[in-house]
Amino acid sequence: MDTKNVIAAISLSAAVIILYSLFFVEPIDPDTIKKDKIAKTEVIESSDAPSIEQNENFSKLTRKEALAESKRILFENNNVIGSINTIGAVIDDLTFKNYNVELDSNEKVILLNPRKNENGYLIESGFVTNNKNIDVPNSSTIWQIVGNDKLTTNDPIKLVWQNNQGIEFQKNISLDEQYLFTVREKVINLSDKTYNFYSYGQIIRNKKPEISGFYILHEGLVATLDEELIEEDYDDIQEKKFSRNASKGWLGIGDKYWITSIVPPRNKDFKTTFDYKNKFRANYISASGTEAGPNETVEEEIQIIVAAKRVKTIDGYAESLNINKFDLTIDWGVMYFLTKPLFFAIDYFFKLLGNYGLAIIAVTICIRLLFFPLANYSFRSMGKMKLLQEPMKRLKELHKDDKMKLQQEMMALYKREKVNPMSGCLPILVQIPVFFALYKVLFVTIEMRHMPFYGWIHDLSAKDPTTIFNLFGLIPWDNVPSFLIIGVWPIAMGVSMWIQQKLNPKPPDPVQQKIFAFFPIFLTVILAPFPAGLVIYWTFNNIFTMIQQYYIQRKMTVKTT
Fold this sequence. Notes:
alpha+beta; Beta-galactosidase, Chain A, domain 5; six-stranded antiparallel beta sheet; 14 helices; about 35% helix; about 25% strand
């Protein structure tokens, strides 16, 4: 590839970014920000819903101590195991049975923890009222178990609490075979008075977890409210409160691979709030109360999903439960239209071949075949450019003192020989979005987590662990600085790029030749920390490109050396 092609590719990429910023990203207007803040404040102040604030003054305990502090209702299915605390009737203990913390560890991923633990992370729900004379359940309420004392897929549980004013509160909790808790809440008014009750639910997280910190992935508080995706980072919520009314949607807290979410009662307006008051909270409360007269019952149902973000699982819940845009719990990004189909293509070949690495190679072949006509045109043009190197050299010598005349003669030569010098950048422009889409898929999908290829690649979502600085593991030096970890696959990618360069026209300038000769080394170092699956894709893409280019140029009887 000559200098003009590279410059063209860079220029076009920059132009795309600039045009997107100008025409698709709305400029931030200070007045708009001010109005938005005012609007949010008005929502909070104008709401008639009572507060769900609770005083929580307690000392921190270890997880084991916190779990042993109260009576618990155990639950288990094929995917999760944990318990429900009878104090507060909260789901505050959940472990994923099928996911290990590390590849070489048997320790399972623990997501939810009791509130008295440093890493407290829990879900609670219930009813509140704006009548301050009525006692309602809170975080200190001890619920009574009625009937079954273990929650399974076949056996739901029932919790009951009564105040001294003739009002009974009930919780019926069921668990499906995966990650769904269905909570049916009742208020039975046995008194002779009428009260208004508001349904609420909230997710509480004591502190910010360790996050990936990559700009391509959102980790934090998330919701879809009336078709709009809301994403708030932990740091942002510590600085400002978010609140909005909606008629449909869901809310939650999302990690890279895990989601904790609540779906409020259907067909009822609610207010969603994200805030931080010594802990992070994502909650909803009904926008209006439900009246319960003497001997009347108020009943609401919510869904709680605490799940590993497998695409099939998330999409399944979105469809079966009709949860609006629940599939966005997986951060597919702005190129949703490309990243998700790319995942499905890789997953399809995985089911055929049994290995995600082979599936990536198969998708690479499909992409090459799909863009074969474009590459064919590009390589033919590059082949002609090779033939024109000598005439162009003569023109440069002839018009070395007249650059304008030189440009005119070169354009005339291109036109006469029907050569487009910009055609070489077309395959690059095609590959850039595919490259980033694949990077996104490898980075955010749990399906790729801890998935092996062959040999030393035990996790396609992690970087190649080998390095030339310990002779790929032959020397017992394990404390290699991260920037020196350049594995076998990145080196193979760099070599394939170097060979590919040999098939392209050489830049006429010796300085440019040296720069291009350094380019494979530069990319090798840059891509070394990237997921191994991405480097494998790039390597095989280079190989298939070379084969395709060599074939086309041989067919044209163009020498490639």
